[in-house]
Amino acid sequence: MQVHLRQEFNPPQTGGYSEDMIPTVGFNMRKVAKGNVIIKLWDIGGQRRFRTMWERYCRGVSAILYVVDAADKIIDKSEALSKQAMVDHLGLDSIEDREVCCYMISCKESLNIDVVIHWLIKHSKTAK
C-alpha cells in the first residue's frame, strides 16, 4: 500500500512530536509495517513549487491523505474552516467512485492518529 503522508504522522513511528518540525521541502519516504500491511509513506512538500509533482507521486497509490497543518493554532482562528466547511469547500461529499473520509487530527495531541492508521489498514488491498 502506498500512501502520501505529511510529516505530522511522524510520531507513531518515532514516538514523539517535536516542536522543531519544519515543513517538508521536496519529499521523504519511509515504510511502516502494521500487522500484515506494509504502508509506504510519502511525505510530499506542500509549497507551491512542489505541487506540480504531486500527480507523479499519486499514480498507482491506494490512498492519499491530504493533511492541513493546524499546529500553529490556525484551527482556533475565526477564519479557520470547520471540518464540515472543509468537506463542503473541497466537494468531498460529491465523490462517488471511492470512499472518502475526513478526520480532524493532531500529532501534537495524539488525536485520531490511530483512527487514520486503522482506516488505511482496513481499506488497503492487502486487508481485503
TrEMBL record:
**Protein name in the entry:** Uncharacterized protein
Q: What domain of life is recorded for the organism?
A: Eukaryota
Q: Which Pfam families match?
A: Arf
Keywords linked to the UniProt accession: GTP-binding, Magnesium, Metal-binding, Nucleotide-binding
Q: Does the keyword GTP-binding apply?
A: yes
Which InterPro entries does the entry link to? P-loop_NTPase (IPR027417), Small_GTPase_ARF/SAR (IPR006689)
Q: Identify the residues that bind GTP.
A: G46
Protein's organism? Lithospermum erythrorhizon
Q: Which molecular-function annotation in GO is an example for this chain?
A: GTP binding
UniProt binding sites for Mg(2+): T24
